[in-house]
Amino acid sequence: MCGIVGYVGDRDATPVLVNALRKLEYRGYDSAGIAVIGPEGLVVRKAKGALRRLEELIATETIRGSCGIGHTRWATHGEPSDVNSHPHTDVSGRIAVVHNGIIENHAKLRAWLEGRGVAFRSQTDTEVIAHLVDHHYEGDLLKAVVAVMGRIEGSYALAVVCEDEPGKIVAVRKDSPLVVGLGKAENLIASDVPALLEYTREVVYLEDKEIAVLTRDRVDFFDGAGERLSKKPSHVDWDVAAAEKGGFEHFMLKEIHEQPKALTDTFRARVDGDGKVNLSEIGLDESWARARRVVITACGTAWHAGVVAKYAFERI
Ligand code: GLU
Q1: What is the CA radius of gyration of the chain?
Q2: Where are the alpha helices (DSSP H) in 87-204?
Q3: H helices within 150-191, ranges in order?
Q4: pLDDT for the residue 272
Q5: End-to-end CA distance of the chain
Q6: Ligand 1 in contact with 76 (CB < 6 A)?
Q7: What local confidence, expressed as pLDDT, does residue 1 receive?
Q8: Is 9 helix (H, G, I), strand (E, B) or coil?
């Protein structure tokens, strides 16, 4: 579960997206990417590894366009690689999607789409969303996203753009955070407030299954059925450093309180439908039960936790 950002306005989108992604780096990630709509149509650049690699990739060219989306990935389905990095596109390459979370029924949807002739490029659960948006698209991106919400199960913060509607971002969330930033002649979205603060302090927090449609001059809000909603903006009066600490006095306290979420996020993709923990992907199977030694490596306070864990493991 990492970060997504989106920008539409008067500036060049690419530097804004990269800058905003940098503000989300503290969330941890294994790859990064952007999709920008400009005079050349939809341009996607993505790379495994640090944001620096994405910056190197785009340093050699000018990506024109003032509407785009960006992503830092924490892989759950499919190894970290260039092709599995987000954004993901539909077959024609006119629709791009960034996603944080897990699509639980992705295997069923993938089989259904493959049955209709769709050739998948990645191993991610996310790619089904790009193809589903394409399947439901009849000239109205909001309507297509509402239709897709009816088909996907799981957790998601999503941002979607389509070449046929340049200058528009459709964003929605369920069980993953998403905040809208309201600017002057520009609007933004991000997984967390620090990514927005350089551009605006007026924000709207999306609730589960709420949709935001962003253009340069306005943001419209809708519920999961596509009915219009009115939402009140909040003013953020903390500075970037405080925003990164999420209201906690210091990072250590924040991290302590984040432990249940960190554990849930880590295990979510590794628990089968019948509630069994499945670690086969990392080579941990029944043979583990025959292990004669467990080595815990840690430093700092984690060393103290490791010492306690030693006793717990020995007892088991
Ligand atoms: N499940 C998606 C993937 O593995 C999104 C992961 C994320 O939240 O970064 O690509």
Answers
A1: 20
A2: 106-115, 127-136, 141-149
A3: none
A4: 75
A5: 31
A6: yes
A7: 59
A8: strand
